Amino acid sequence: MSKNSLASFAQSGATLAVRVTPNARANKVEIEDETIKISVTAPPADGKANAAVIKLLSKALGVAKTRLNLVQGHKGRDKVFRLD
Fold first, then answer.
1. What pTM does this model have?
2. Which GO terms describe its cellular component (predicted)?
């Protein structure tokens, strides 16, 4: 997915619902059926997958990692991020 595909979501105060797949073969961000799906190679332990998701999503949005806040789904596959 290109950086510009998600760049339109990069507005302050925006919320993004994301479906995460940890332990994937490769890191990737894709939009499928109006759902943002993120696959990360990191395991879902000790916050490693969440950190990898934030890194990948911030790169796709073209924003700093510090602007993304995980507001829901700290331990689940369905997550909600707020862009500050």
1. 0.89
2. cytoplasm
| φ, ψ at 54 (rounded to 5°) | -60, -40
> CB 19: neighbour CB atoms within 10 A?
15
Cα separations (Å) of 70 from 2, 24, 25?
23, 21, 24
Rg (CA), the chain: 11
Helix runs in 1-84, H state only: 3-7, 48-61
Q: By three-state DSSP, how is residue 51 classified?
A: helix
3-class state of residue 17 by DSSP: strand
Share of the chain above pLDDT 70, in %: 94
Domains along the chain with CATH numbers: 3-83 (3.30.1200.10)
Structure tokens belonging to residue 2: 């290109």
